[in-house]
Specification:
The complex is a heterodimer of chains A (650) and B (200). Chain A is mostly beta strands and 650 residues long. In chain A, 11% of the residues lie in helices and 45% in strands. In chain A, the strands form ten sheets. In chain A, strands 6, 7, 8, 9, 10, 11, 12, 13, 14, 18 and 19 form an eleven-stranded mixed beta sheet that branches. The radius of gyration of chain A is 29 Å and the shape is globular. About 2% of the residues of chain A have low confidence. Chain B has one domain. Chain B is 52% helix and 12% strand. Chain B is built from five helices and five strands; from the N terminus they run αβββαααββα. A five-stranded antiparallel beta sheet of chain B has the order 3-2-1-5-4. In chain B, helix 1 runs antiparallel to helix 3 and helix 4 packs antiparallel against helix 5. The longest helix of chain B is centred in the middle third of the chain and has 31 residues. The mean pLDDT of chain B is 89. The chains are: A mainly beta (650), B alpha+beta (200). At the A-B interface, loops of A face helix 2 of B.
Chain lengths: 650, 200
């Protein structure tokens, strides 16, 4: 009897345990199916958002579909791209010119979508080059880099390229302070000789073209990140700074001594006034401005030699410093424009400042001190509130449309959600691992589309199949539509994804170009029909005006070229149909292939080294007879007595 | 014989004027459907032009046709596009004159010319299709046993990877229906009229 009793209990326990185990596994499974269905975009269907992810040290910008995490395109910006000849073709080489020469690489950190009235409008996206200070503009109808401007008197263009509400200006603040103008002073004279600069680049409303309007010469701190004001604070720009200690060696210790560093609040509308009043100094310098014309399909690089500089001492009221605990990194403004959030990466709290309190403090002159003519405001007078015990290592904050802030925590590797106004933490979720920036579509704008938050991580470790010591970079997608944040998807990224931007797909895709109209092709070496195809010798330069159309080149037999000639293949793709690019490659070419879009002309430089016959062919599988799309070019010895000849269209 | 009454003449006048729409609306539509063209590909045939259903559609079709050795469609070289607009205007003018003259016989003649012009037009279109479908470049890239690619006159047909459909378009349908309506109206009017004549 007693034995049966125990047996019954044992069976009951086993049954209960089995029940819970089965429940747990089935609910886990249900969770996964639920997450999968939220990121599943059926074949042939479109993603809801375009996501633009910085390529970090790849110098590129990659385009993803969100929520699926599918990679759509990698846009070369500051780097050469053998896939499409960017930076290799004669037309695109000028885009990578700088005052230091041809620089086909940079460290691209922060994409910034153009905005109208503080809302992303999908016209252009900007991105900074950190190492050789530059700002690029990418046209979102062609997804092509169309403009790059170099920033003089800058080093480490990190607090860039953030935009004002109506894309009036894009800013560029220097992370490294340096001697301005640069000279070989002793490094330990940092405090005397090193300065920071903050540049305002004016953007033409219609064309998007950039022009360096003016620079502010500021105390030699490290200007790290920035955001423009919105609504009432439109007209102001906020920059975090660290190393207010002005250390020049072992910064990890020496720049971590002060309890508080600063946010520089810049009244740029007032700066515009000072420029109008002529309070600037015109300073000699040297920088490049590169522009790609989509009608000539050709870039030009111009050198500019002057910049207007404003000194805070001459311009009262233009800049104020707000004290911020411990080496702040992120500097983010909420959708209303009232709150400015700083991410003090070593601080135990997240300070939130009030724009209206800042104005009041300025009016009441609540200043603690002054640095080089810049008043330092009283911390308490400007503080709106503090998010207490948020986690470790707060970096960046984005916002949803329901009144919450989301802050990335690098050290505790998590996203923390907190309420604007009460400053209480309402949710937290782990990231894998060591999140840097985070991004909510429109989460830095006046109109967040608060459906997802994306974590942009610094470490991947065991999250994917290993690929040797160099692992993939990674982002993670979380659902934030409910009270609790929920991890939906991990996806790999190209290069380190510092920051990203996202925008509803319909805003961008309605403007997408399908082809370049041949009639609008103003390339100086374009041909509009096969009949115009020709080969011209100009001294030792040979220009081949060659056309591509399915599935042949015209001409495809060329003779009369000699060793020592410089040969330019000007390839015009005569196709006018969607998604029919042709590629071009010739044996022994020293740089890359060309990928020529319908209606476009691109040029490959070729310097044959020895006599012989060289094949050329189409590299992009264009048609059923793609393998037949080829030709031969004969190269004769340098002293050969040959004339140019080629076959002609009938 | 009693002349046509004014109300009926107004209706005929509307019918006579309907072909003016052909200067805006297409007569015929040929659609080319293939997996590689999710955005659609096709031609609209007007009385004075051939146009693509979207930008560059005609160029795309001409380029595809070179694989099978078909001649390029060049609207500026089609003589019919100079003649048909004149015929159309003449039909409208003849119609209106016949109505001004009020005599039933003139209306009958107008409807007859109108119908015959339509039939001649369709035959011409058929021959043009045959010419394009059969008169192929002997050095064409792709050759088939039948050596013909004429699209269907009306209906759908599979030509290589394309399903080619050919149907009257809005202008064609409008003019054809108005012509039928014209004949019906003429028949009814004659019947009522001959009765009235008997009564009188």
């Amino acid at each position: 009897m007693k034995k049966n009793y125990y047996l019954a209990i044992a069976v009951a326990i086993i049954a209960i345990v089995a029940y819970f185990v089965s429940c747990k596994s089935s609910s886990d499974l249900a969770g996964d199916v639920d997450a999968a269905s939220k990121v599943y975009v059926a074949p042939g269907k479109y993603d809801e958002f375009y996501g633009f992810f910085s390529g970090g040290f790849s110098g590129q910008l990659s385009v993803y579909g969100i929520p699926s995490g599918r990679l759509l395109k990698v846009i070369p910006v500051f780097s050469q791209n053998p896939e499409n000849g960017w930076g290799y073709s004669e037309e695109t080489k000028p885009m990578l010119e700088t005052s230091y020469g041809f620089i086909p690489w940079d460290d691209a950190h922060h994409p910034a979508l153009s905005t109208t009235d503080g809302i992303p409008d999908g016209r252009w996206i900007f991105i900074n080059g950190n190492n050789t200070p530059r700002v690029a503009r990418i046209d979102l109808s062609s997804f092509k880099t169309v403009e790059i401007i170099e920033i003089p008197f800058s080093a480490g263009n990190h607090s860039s390229p953030f935009l004002t509400e109506n894309t009036e200006y894009v800013v560029a603040g220097t992370r490294f302070s340096v001697p301005i103008p640069n000279q070989d002073v002793a490094i330990d004279t940092y405090k005397d000789n090193f300065k920071g600069s903050i540049s305002f680049i004016k953007i033409d409303k219609a064309s998007g073209r950039m022009e360096l309007a003016f620079q502010l010469l500021v105390p030699g701190f490290n200007y790290d990140l920035s955001r423009a004001g919105k609504n009432a604070s439109h007209g102001w720009f906020f920059f975090t700074s660290y190393n207010t200690e002005q250390a020049h060696t072992l910064l990890e210790v020496n720049a971590s001594q002060n309890d508080k560093d600063f946010i520089a609040a810049v009244n740029w509308k007032l700066a515009e006034e000072y420029i109008k009043q002529g309070k600037f100094k015109e300073v000699s310098t040297r920088y490049r401005h590169n522009y790609f014309d989509e009608k000539t399909h050709t870039a030009t690089s111009n050198e500019i030699n002057k910049v207007k500089v404003l000194l805070p001492q001459d311009c009262p009221g233009m800049i104020y410093y707000i004290p911020v605990p411990k080496s702040p990194h992120g500097c983010d403004v909420d959708p209303s424009g009232e709150y400015i959030v700083a991410g003090g990466k070593l601080a135990a709290l997240i300070p939130v400042f009030s724009f209206s309190k800042m104005l009041k403090a300025i009016e009441e002159k609540k200043f603690d001190k002054e640095i080089d003519g810049i008043p330092v405001l009283n911390y308490e007078a400007v503080l709106a509130g503090e998010v207490k015990e948020p986690g470790l290592g707060p970096l960046h904050t984005e916002f949803d449309d329901k009144g919450y802030g989301y802050t990335s925590m690098f050290l505790s590797s998590e996203i923390v959600k907190w309420k604007i106004g009460t400053w209480e933490v309402v949710d937290r979720v782990p990231t894998y691992y060591s999140i840097g920036h985070l991004m909510i579509p429109g989460g830095d704008s006046k109109k967040p589309w608060g459906k997802y938050v994306i974590a942009l991580n610094k470490i991947t470790k065991d999250r994917y199949l290993p690929t040797g010591p160099e692992l993939t970079q990674s982002a993670q997608l979380y659902d934030i539509s409910g009270d609790k944040m929920k991890l939906l998807l991990d996806f790999p990224t190209v290069g380190e994804p510092h920051y990203a931007q996202a925008i509803p797909a319909e805003i961008v895709m309605k403007n997408a170009k399908k082809i370049y109209p041949l009639g609008e092709n103003n390339h100086p070496y374009a041909i509009k029909s096969e009949k115009d195809a020709r080969v011209i010798r100009e001294g030792n330069i040979v220009r081949i005006y060659i056309s591509t159309i399915r599935s042949h080149f015209m001409p495809d037999n060329i003779e009369g070229i000699k060793v020592g000639d410089i040969v330019y293949w000007h390839v015009t793709n005569l196709e006018q149909d969607w998604d029919i690019p042709h590629g071009f490659a010739v044996k022994g070419a020293e740089n890359a292939e060309l990928l020529i879009m319908p209606g476009e002309t691109a040029t490959l430089k070729w310097t044959p080294k020895s006599p012989g016959v060289y094949p050329f062919y189409c590299t992009d599988f264009c048609s059923a007879l793609h393998q037949e799309m080829q030709g031969y070019v004969k190269v004769s010895p340098a002293n050969a007595n040959v004339v140019i000849s080629y076959n002609k269209a009938n | 014989m009693i002349d046509m009454n004014n109300k009926i003449r107004v209706i005929f006048a509307i019918i006579a004027l309907i072909p003016t729409t052909l200067f805006i609306l297409p007569l015929w539509h040929i659609d080319f459907d293939a997996p590689q063209f999710p955005e659609g590909l096709g031609l609209y045939i007007y009385i004075n032009d051939i146009q693509g259903t979207r930008e560059n559609a005609l160029e795309t079709i001409n380029n595809l046709n070179h694989y099978i050795g078909m001649q390029k469609i060049k609207p500026e070289e089609v003589p019919e596009f100079k003649i048909i607009p004149i015929v159309t205007i003449s039909l409208i003018v003849i119609g209106l004159i016949s109505l001004i003259l009020k005599k039933r016989i003139f209306v009958f003649i107008w409807l007859l010319i109108f119908s015959l012009s339509g039939i001649v037009g369709l035959i011409d279109y058929y021959l043009w299709q045959q010419e394009f479908g059969h008169n192929l470049d002997p050095n064409a890239i792709i050759k088939t046993e039948t050596q013909s690619y004429d699209p269907p006159f009306i209906g759908s047909k599979k030509i290589m990877n394309f399903t080619v459909s050919s149907y009257p378009a809005s202008g064609g349908i409008l003019v054809f229906s108005s012509l039928i309506a014209g004949w019906i109206l003429f028949y009814l009017e004659s019947k009522i009229n001959s009765k009235q004549e008997l009564i009188e």
